[in-house]
Amino acid sequence: MNHAEIVDTLLKSDEPSIRWKARVNVLGEDPESAKIKALEKEVKDSPRVKALLQKVDKSGHLKVNVYAKWQGAQWVFMTLADIGYPRGDKGLQATADEMVDVWLGERFFNEVVIEKKADAYKNRLAIPLMQGRHRTCASQQGNALYSVLKLGLEDERIHQLAERLLYWQWPDGGWNCDKEASADTSTFIHTLWSMRGLDLYTKETGDKKAAASVRRAAEVFLSRKLYKRASNGKVIREEFVKLHYPLYWHYDILGALKVFADMDMTKDVRFGDALDLLQEKELPDGGWPAESRYYTKVSDKIALGSDYVDWGGTSSTKMNEWVTADALHVLRKFGRIKN
Question: Model-level pTM?
């Protein structure tokens, strides 16, 4: 099956979000066109989105802890931002406001200098500062910044989210929550999602400091070719080279390439190894599989590791529509395939 046939399969999907990804991300249709706007309404009215928003009450509040994995507002909003949900739905404003309130709580504006890991848990009302580095899960603010901007639910507090990310950035260009005093290198996980949020913030505001921060963060990945140790060129973590959907706060090469594609940062030759690996993972009959997953079960009940919906499961031989749509999007943006 050639790529045109794979795209045709995606365009015939029962999932309006898959059709949206195929038309906007793969075929490059104008997201502001009347036809795409009509498709976004289908996305909003789809069974999948209704399931994702089933805990939203009449006042617009998602009646789940903001960070409940994977059913809280943090994850639901990230998903909606990725699958073609229409911008500016004021019915979700209350949940968006609550999420931003959480990540701009008083704790995130306080800091305490500590020397060892055990001390980090003695003061939970401040961000630990060790060896001159803030040890905090910056992807929380990064993902909130990205999703409210992407969904058109932002207000002036986006500037505070961006300011916190800039303030916490490590000397090597990334972010890390590791509370071991010896940790001096950023983590891919917090750096990817913080970088993505700041990039969209830059596009919306033109902020030069944020733009410079994004360029510094990109080097964290490029210097390691997105998945290799800088010291010896070996794979950093096997899970990084497996394909997943959704990623939530995790990391893999497809997720990283997708972020860079959406940032329009595609010219660096150091992307080559990750792109080659992605292409090698294409199935003989076409498409790409989900090789692993981070949700453990599908359930309406709130439980650690649960998602409200199924994302196609995992397989070594079966095409996953969500992974395939993203893989084609990446390969088109990086010039590896033509429309």
Answer: 0.96
